[in-house]
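Predict structure. Chain length: 265.
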Amino acid sequence: MKFSVVANARHAGIKKILTKVIGFLDDFELEEETAKVVNLKGTPLSELRGDMVISLGGDGTLLYILSKVNKPIFGINCGGVGFLAEMEHSEDIFTAIKNLEKGEFLNQKLQRIDTYINEHHVGSALNEVVLHTSRVAKIQGFEIHIDGVLADSFRGDGLIISTPTGSTSYAMSLGAPILYPTMEAHIIVPIAAYRIGARPLVVPSNYEITAKLTGNPEAVMVLDGQEEILITIDDNVKFKKASKSVEVIRFKDNFFERVRNKLRL
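Prediction complete.
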């Protein structure tokens, strides 16, 4: 098995961690910014050819990688919470890599959200798509349709369309429920809605969700905290379950253990 290694080159201690990881690998390639950390030759992220990607960083690093390549990914947390990662950099990396090489792992398939503006595909998100006001302290109006039926309208700071994976991220901080990551559902979450009755709504993932601005002429849409896109009151924004899932490597079904250890303490 050939591994593609991508690290957060800005992390203070990443050189030591990266050196240890690649020292355990027989066949690997490094992403170009990662390679600079250890003075080796690298490959652009979009051109990686490994069978599996090893992510060294936090959740942001893993999400960034998946926004550029769609390969099975194994996360080693070198950041903060690292909820999406399978292990910490302080754990037994040697044994983990040997298990990967022997194929002793689970392949967890996670759904993504495809996002369209006026029928044009603008990107996919594993965690969530956020629509928020383009100006600080200015309230925005939102109208939400589900499969063509008006489901809700409210004024507030923004709106989140979350996957089950994203239910433990931004959506959770706003009081939305935590969903098991392989559930076939999406969560619609108002952000600071100026209405007592505005609550998160869980819908089947095969339903098409449409959002429309009804207040100020502009808002900003952000996919997985990475790419920002300006939308206007004339735009039709649509969300669908992506046809291709993301493959995250696990050694065991440890979701509830990660919730307990990383989110409840």
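Summary: Residues 14-23 form the longest helix (10 residues).
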